[in-house]
Fold these 3 entries.
Entry 1:
Amino acid sequence: MTDAAPATPKFRRRAEDRPGEVLDAALTLFVNQGYASTSVAQIASAAGISKGAVYLYFPSKQAILEGLVRRAITPIADRTLARAAQIRGDPRATLRVIVTGIVTGLADPRVYAVPKVVIREAVVAPEIAAMYRDAVLDRVMPAGAALIRQSIKAGQLRPVDPELTLRSVMGPIVLHLLLAEVFDIRPDRGLALEALAENHLDILFNGLFPPGPEGRSDV
């Protein structure tokens, strides 16, 4: 009988958990009091570690926010694009995967809290906008435009501008979040992301595709 593998020392498990604990503490503070009003010292205190220990994992407060983006948003983008790239045939399925993939990911309050912080702060902090662009948008937008371009080449979509079409596809979701988080204007039924997605897909499918028996789709 072989001896069981020794348990991982508690201090080692604790050290490995610390980056996540720092991110959790930072997210709570960013949501409750704003990114600009939160200090690294406050994050350290909330995480139960020293300020110096925070800097072992994150060189700056912006790096902490970037860590939140890469933990919460990047996986949604990667999963959604991977699923969309596997679909062959009717591009309606691809567009549905893209729109619903984003909405489903944002349904988790801890995930939605991250773009909420970014949206609120990016309007006054260009460096945050640049960080989000580098971490998410510069990867997602070219891939999305390429999928639209493929569908146009296959004759499945009208010859529209791929980049502008992608903005048209994503624009309503972005505007919806801006209205809610920057201007505090929300529908009477609440954020209703899933309802927004279905409404948007209905308009999109019946406005983007060519007329004819196959040109309309009830969703």
Entry 2:
Amino acid sequence: ANIDTGIIMQSLDSNFNLRRLERYLVMINEGKITPAVFLSKSDLISKEEIEQKKNEIRKILPDISVTALSNNSPEDIENIKTFFTPFKTYCLLGSSGVGKTTLLNNLIQKELFKTQPIREKDGRGKHTTTKRELIILENGAIIIDNPGMRELGVISDETGLGSTFNEIDELADKCKYKDCTHTVETGCAVLEAVEHGEISEERYNNFIKIYKESQYNEMSYLDKREKDKKFGKYVRSVKKDIKKIKGRE
């Protein structure tokens, strides 16, 4: 894969949404990319509330890296810099208004990208990034910033869904029927787990919704993959150039 780590960025205000996070995780896991989460605007809530949000995420994926930060804190920015490994490639994902563009400006210590204020009435941001941007940190790490997506459609294979909804994937093996859809069948281990409160209805409903959408989106996704191949070649060429330059220093 061209991307080593996919960073999902959500802000610790009304933007925080576990169901949206699951959608991003399906997309990242499908690409066999290591996921990580940045929680911005940590200055808006208490440390106890931050830990609560982190724990909610770890219930979904126990081993995932979760980092809280404030773009207004120079100390937080310095700590975030240590997250990025030299010559590795990172993709930054998240809705508009969560602070992705501000973070990039802070990391390179330049106002290279424009930022826009969020709307006060609903806390949503205007689209600042309208195309993919690529920046290179001092240590050679590459960060690709994607446009904020308010409605994220995903396409997933069994790997993406299975890795994100791992407890459902494990229970599926215990269903009475091998082709169980986990919706109406008798003897469905997944439905029984939902009924007994072992899986939340919200998480189950999101699983079913994403699965159905993935079937519908399959053809348009294949077209997008062709465009991504061309962008991937560009990323690889940039990485080669960086290593050559670093080798001369």
Entry 3:
Amino acid sequence: MTVNHLSVQLRKIGTKGSLNQIRKEGLVPGVVYGGDKPNTFVQFNRKNLGKILKRSGKGTNALIELMVPGEEQETVMIRDLQWNVLTGALIHADFYRVSLSQPITAEVPLTWIGEPIGVKKGGLMQPGLRSVLVECLPAQIPERLEVAVADLNVGDKLTVADLQTPPGVKILEALEEVIVSILSARVEEEPSPPPEEKREEIKPPAAEVNGLAAK
């Protein structure tokens, strides 16, 4: 089990102005909640959390030990991250407390392994799900679930029931849910020929009888 450590400082509930000041100093405001404890308001170095997200390989499913000076360490996971839409900078983080002995739910991404036979023949691979909801202990959350698709031909599909999970990990999705299928490529239909124009019927003058013009 890999546990990451993040040093944080306590802060007071901030106004919009005070939160912006925290960000100008290169820090990110955050809140810790859950369990039987009241919410705790913290701030931390933006780069330190970025390193954890890259190093762990689990993204927001990473286990983090929050280290507060003079306080007891708390094991948390990331509940939500907010980003500046213009700069892409992290501007807020929500952490929730977890117990290593209590199961939790988490979203785990799916990774496709191999190139389907059907795709090599010109078919199209259509993902149905890109992640699945699982239940397990926090330390057992997989980084990803691999899905072998190399043997799939046109018309084949895989469902949640086909997924292989590590011991202790339970998938909460419906077993019949399609996770990937191989479709045949659409054949472009030849355009239909335009309808034949109907020639205008020329009627003889009313005075014309038996092919002879009236005199």
